[in-house]
Design goal:
The model has no long low-confidence stretch (mean pLDDT 83). Helix 1 runs antiparallel to helix 2. The protein is an alpha+beta fold and 172 residues long. It has three helices and ten strands; from the N terminus they run E-H-E-E-E-E-E-E-H-E-E-E-H. The longest helix has 12 residues. It has two domains: 84 residues, Signal recognition particle alu RNA binding heterodimer, srp9/1, CATH 3.30.720; 87 residues, Signal recognition particle alu RNA binding heterodimer, srp9/1. The strands form three sheets. The protein has a four-stranded mixed sheet with strand order 1-6-3-2, covered by helices on one side. The chain has a four-stranded mixed sheet with strand order 7-10-9-8, covered by helices on one side.
C-alpha cells in the first residue's frame, strides 16, 4: 500500500449532540461547530501537529465529532446507536494530550462540574513515561487525559497496590 489509510476523526454518540458538543467545548476550550446544530457537532481543538523541530506543521489537529443517535444513518427509526448512557462494560476510549498550560486536575474538575464521572486520576504508565486520568461523559463516552511524565517518575503506593490486585507485573 503506497499510502496508509488515515484516521481523520472520531465520532461520539449522544442523544443530545448539541449538549454534548457544549460539554466538550466547555471542558477543553474547543470550538463547537453545529453542522447542522443538533444533528452533528464538530469539536475543533485548533492548532497544528508539530514538526520535529517543534514548529507548527501545516497539518491541523484531529477533530472530534458528536452525532445525534436519534438521527444517525442508516435509518433514524432503527434502534439507537450505543452511547446513550453509561456503558455496562468496556467502551471505546480516546486519549487527549493535556496542553502545557492546562492540567489533568483542572480538566477533570471541569468535566465533573458538568456531569462527568471521574474514572481515575494521576496514574503513571512507565512504558510510555506518562500520567493519565479519565472520565466518562454524561452520554457514556470515555476520555483519557495524557500528561507527559518528564523527570519526576514513579508509581504511587496506592497505584502499585491496585495494580497488584489486577496481577500486573511490577515493571509497568
Amino acid at each position: 500500500m503506497a499510502q496508509p489509510n488515515t484516521l481523520i476523526f472520531i465520532d461520539f454518540p449522544s442523544p443530545d449532540a448539541e449538549a454534548c458538543g457544549r460539554f466538550y467545548a466547555e471542558v477543553f476550550g474547543w470550538v463547537n461547530e453545529g453542522r447542522p446544530a443538533g444533528v452533528f457537532h464538530r469539536l475543533v481543538p485548533g492548532g497544528h501537529f508539530p514538526n520535529p523541530d517543534g514548529s507548527e506543521s501545516e497539518i491541523g489537529n484531529l477533530h472530534l465529532g458528536i452525532f445525534d443517535t436519534k438521527l444517525a444513518p442508516p435509518d433514524p427509526n432503527a434502534t439507537a446507536a450505543q452511547g446513550t448512557g453509561p456503558s455496562s462494560g468496556p467502551a471505546p476510549r480516546i486519549y487527549i494530550l493535556v496542553s502545557d498550560d492546562d492540567s489533568e486536575a483542572a480538566i477533570l474538575a471541569r468535566a465533573e462540574e458538568r456531569g462527568a464521572k471521574i474514572l481515575w486520576r494521576d496514574k503513571y504508565w512507565g512504558e510510555f513515561n506518562g500520567f493519565h486520568g479519565a472520565f466518562r461523559d454524561p452520554w457514556g463516552s470515555e476520555v483519557i487525559l495524557w500528561t507527559k511524565g518528564g523527570d519526576q517518575l514513579g508509581v504511587r503506593d496506592d497505584q502499585r497496590a491496585w495494580e497488584k490486585t489486577k496481577g500486573w507485573p511490577d515493571d509497568i
